[in-house]
Design goal:
- With 507 residues, the chain is α+β, with helices and mostly antiparallel strands.
- It folds into four domains: 4-165, Methyltransferase, Cobalt-precorrin-4 Transmethylase, Domain 2, CATH 3.30.950; 170-235, no CATH class; 246-365 and 375-426, 2-Layer Sandwich (Heat Shock Protein 90); 434-504, Orthogonal Bundle (Arc Repressor Mutant, subunit A), CATH 1.10.10.
- It contains 16 helices and 26 strands.
- The protein has a six-stranded mixed β-sheet, with helices on one face. A four-stranded mixed β-sheet has the order 4-5-9-8, sandwiched between helices. Strands 18-17-23 form a three-stranded antiparallel β-sheet.
- Strand 11 and strand 12 form a beta hairpin.
- Helix 6 packs across helix 11, helix 9 runs antiparallel to helix 10 (306-318) and helix 10 packs antiparallel against helix 12 (384-395).
- The radius of gyration is 29 Å and the shape is elongated.
- The protein starts with a strand and ends with a helix.
């Protein structure tokens, strides 16, 4: 249990103070402290008759940025009056502090008020909340600060902090997925991750011959032989009970959401969503071709660096709040920008501004992040934003920006304007597998039901056909749905995209 040291500081300005138990507060310090009135870090009470309400504020300070609780100052007039302090007063303060949980080791200062002989100001300083610590409560209720107001902490915020404090007990990724068995996990994807980790020097070579069950257990993606939600998100093909495993992708006309020219929704685990997102980027973004002076050869690159987009999408999938099953990751491409969004929050130590500076890593899904790091999908922790910005700088593209908006973290890349020194071309479509190539060759230009398409191949297994033909073709933009917003529509049909039609005419 953390003991919070609540102590007194010498005040150099209302906002710039430090805690020092060896130096006593003076009335001048108090005057400087209250000069700017009540705030997110300062609460004033006239007397300890408001002690209970004061403890609500103390709890709020402990759960936010810390702050001062001062008794003996009129909040409206800021007049320093003080109050009589007796043994009973001190006992009441001690009893009230005992209502804070976790326990608070309080250092309280009593400051004489020269204008009111015998009266004292009571000043207490409370440290702020640190990511990973248990949130405080007062008599079982958590409070936090919203500007200068003390409010009851919302359930989702409290749960989030409990989850951060004991992720092994409360994290979504660590809970067992009782509807999924080890056989439901994609061994090909798992072995692929192991191979990448071995090649990258992050996993011992012996893992190549180790059983899948043992590897996943070491990665803490199994509990008593049952896959965790984290394992399902990474490796399972059985996602029927995980509606949040979706990625919405849209290419809009202009710079708003009034009209789109392409709207897709893909369902699947991490690798399916990652591949789908990158395919969508390649489908709708431009290639820039330049003749370099040193080589006299044409070099082609995506208008926004591939590495930056991929890193941003990996981070979006890795760090999202997967427990929010009704929310969806998304990619939105406009004429002037690209937005990648995921349900989530910034850790208290990181802001949309400070994320661009060197910082420690605070992964929301620790085990998922560890598995992706070991398999080299993630580089050194805390370096994702730096890698994104470095890739943009290297290509001469403006750095992206981050923001939090209504429960979503959004990273925005500005699309470069056309450069006369470059030739802008669309990436031509080429089927990536023999199955997709055959599908494109056999399908016509009209919408067809899945049963109709299967008859062209004389195949019987709908599951295998969907996995090997339909899903890959959707991911790489070879076919499109009749009902893109309702993938499981009972009358769903498919047809070739213009890109696939162009490839089909190649001969």
């Amino acid at each position: 249990m953390r003991m919070c040291n609540c102590s007194i500081a010498v005040i150099y300005s209302p906002m710039d103070y430090y805690v020092n138990d060896d130096i006593s507060m003076t009335i001048d310090n108090i005057k400087k402290l209250i000069a700017s009135d009540e705030s997110r870090t300062l609460e004033l009470k006239k007397t300890t008759g408001e002690l209970k309400d004061g403890m609500h504020s103390a709890c709020a300070f402990l759960n936010t940025e810390g702050g001062w609780l001062v008794f003996g100052v009129a909040p409206k007039s800021l007049k320093i009056i003080g109050q009589e302090v007796t043994d009973a007063t001190q006992r009441e303060i001690a009893q009230s502090l005992a209502g804070l949980d976790p326990a608070v080791d309080a250092h309280i200062e009593y400051i004489d008020v020269p204008d009111y002989p015998g009266n004292k100001v009571i000043a207490m300083h409370f440290d702020g909340w640190v990511w990973g610590e248990r949130p405080h409560t007062f008599h079982g209720c958590p409070y936090y600060k919203v500007e200068s107001t003390t409010k009851v902490m919302p359930h989702d915020m409290y749960d989030e902090r409990i989850r951060a404090q004991q992720p092994q007990l409360y994290s979504w990724e660590g809970q067992t997925a009782d509807s999924v068995t080890l056989a439901d996990l994609n061994e090909k994807h798992i072995r692929g991750c192991i191979r990448l980790g071995v090649e990258g020097g992050r996993i011992p070579a012996s893992a190549m011959s180790t059983s899948i069950e043992e590897v996943l257990a070491k990665w803490k993606l199994l509990k008593n032989g049952v896959p965790t939600n984290g394992a399902v998100m990474l490796f399972s093909d059985n996602i029927d009970e995980f509606p949040q495993f979706r990625l919405r992708m849209a290419r809009f006309v202009g710079n708003d959401k009034n009209e789109f020219i392409d709207n897709q929704r893909v369902e699947g685990g991490f690798f399916t969503l990652l591949d789908a997102g990158m395919a969508f980027f390649f489908k709708h973004l431009n290639l820039s071709g330049k003749i370099t002076n040193h080589s006299l050869q044409r070099e082609e690159q995506l208008e926004v660096p591939y590495k930056a987009l991929r890193e941003a999408l990996i981070n979006s999938l890795c760090h999202r709040q997967w427990e929010k099953y009704n929310l969806t990751n998304s990619i939105a491409i406009y004429d002037d920008r690209i937005e990648i969004a995921n349900p989530g929050i910034f850790p208290p130590q990181i802001t949309p501004e400070s994320i661009k500076e060197p910082h420690e890593s605070y992964p929301y899904n620790l085990k998922i992040a560890e598995a992706l790091y070991k398999s080299t999908y993630l580089e050194s922790w805390g370096s994702g934003a730096k890698r994104i910005m470095d890739a943009c700088r290297e290509q001469g593209v403006e750095e992206p920006s981050w923001r939090w908006d209504g429960g979503f973290i959004i990273v925005t890349f500005k699309r470069p304007k056309h450069d006369l020194s470059t030739t802008q071309v669309r990436l031509k479509y080429v089927p990536t597998t023999p199955q997709v190539q055959r599908l494109v060759e056999l399908m016509g230009n009209e919408y067809m039901g899945m049963k109709e398409i299967m008859e062209l191949f004389d195949l019987k297994s709908a599951k295998r056909f969907r996995e090997n033909y339909i899903q890959p073709a959707l991911v790489e933009g070879a076919i499109e749905r009749l009902y893109p917003d309702r993938p499981n529509h009972p009358k769903q049909k498919y047809r070739l995209t213009d890109y696939a039609k162009e490839w089909k005419k190649k001969d």
